[in-house]
Amino acid sequence: MTDLLTRLAAFLQRQISNADIKIDNLMPVSGGNARKAWSFDLATGGQPTQACIMLMQAGAGQLESDLAAEFKVISALRNSGVPAPQALWIDEDGGSLGAPTIIMERVTGVTDILALRAPEPAQRNRAIALAFAEAAAKLHNADIGKLGFLGSPTRETAAAGQIALWEAQFLKHRMEPHPALAFAFQWLKTHKPVAERVSLVHGDYRFGNFLYDGDRITALLDWEMAHLGDPVEDIAWAYRSLWTPEMHLSLDEFVAHYTVSGGPAVKPDTLLFYRLFGEVKHAVISLTAARSFADGRTNNLRLADRMTLALPCIRQFFEWLPEPSAP
Exposure winner among 76, 191, 242, 284, fewest CB in 10 A? Predict the structure, then answer.
């Protein structure tokens, strides 16, 4: 802790060279499987104390993510109306803090998926689910002009780009053939929808990945999988069985509120495609986590048996798979 505090103070002093700094209350907080998170308060001269969160790369995990791109995405959303924390500083290569790190403002609120999916308080949880639909509409209307570093997919290529990305991860990290997933990727390739628009897609848009205060969403979290693509991808992901808000807001109600709030039209066939895609994507994430542990690139025991989660994803894919059209 002392070494980290010393490193952090030196790093921040270089970022804020015109003021003396003081760091208080540095402490670890929950940061997920791939990140170590730390909370601290920063005082700079006579300025008000700033509440901060520091996310440090923790080695291999469930994803191969680009911390610099994540930082740029959050930075681009400043003053956009999208509930996102303010990006403050980045140690891209970890040379100063010992691991690649981003520092953001610490936003008020809590994240508690168990509480949000509990039967009560039903009125509060439904209000948050509606706010989640509104936040999705804001996100998918955000100006993407500053996000060229994420590539330049078109309405016609958005789905193909994500299929290729996750198939490459599948081929890289699988430890056995998985013919069912190989079939699933082939099906996705031959049924690609054309997006209504290309938007900023969060990529992990779900209950558990935002802070809330009362019935208000204060910040969307975990931008590791953010990309340009079809906004329907986020809606389908939000209603996966592991974290769905279905108890309080049906998928049809979510879509209706999303479109009324300014989100683009959601075609049923496109929504089904991305629900199928989401199961394949989560299966690949599970295989990647298991491979990280098997290769000794992480000792996180939570990832040791993650491969077992791929089977329910594959089963759900085939349950939802449409019957082939008659010749």
Answer: 242
| Residue in 173, 170, 193 with CA at minimum distance from that of residue 269 | 193
Is 326 within a domain? no
CB-based contact 319:292 (threshold 8 Å): no
**308-312 long-range contacts, Cβ below 8 Å, gap at least 24?**
309/282, 309/283, 310/178, 310/181, 310/283, 310/286
Residue 121: cis peptide before it, omega within 30 degrees of 0: yes
Residues 249 and 315 in one domain: yes
pTM: 0.94
Give whole-number Cα distances, 171 to 227, 289, 294, 297, 313, in Å: 21, 14, 16, 18, 17
End-to-end C-alpha distance for the chain, whole angstroms: 67
Segment among 188-192, 292-296, 323-327 with least mean pLDDT = 323-327
**Within this chain, do residues 83 and 9 fall inside the same structural domain, yes or no?**
yes
Is 326's pLDDT higher than 60?
no
pLDDT at 325 over 70: no
Question: Residue 82 burial (CB < 10 Å; 0-12/13-18/19+)?
Answer: buried
- Closest by alpha carbon to 280, among 155, 153, 197, 164? 164
Enter the tokens of residue 149: 């570093």
**Contact (CB, 8 A) for 131 and 207:** no
Number of domains in the chain: 2
Element spanning 44, H or E: strand 35-44
The label of the residue with tokens 């402490």 reads 27
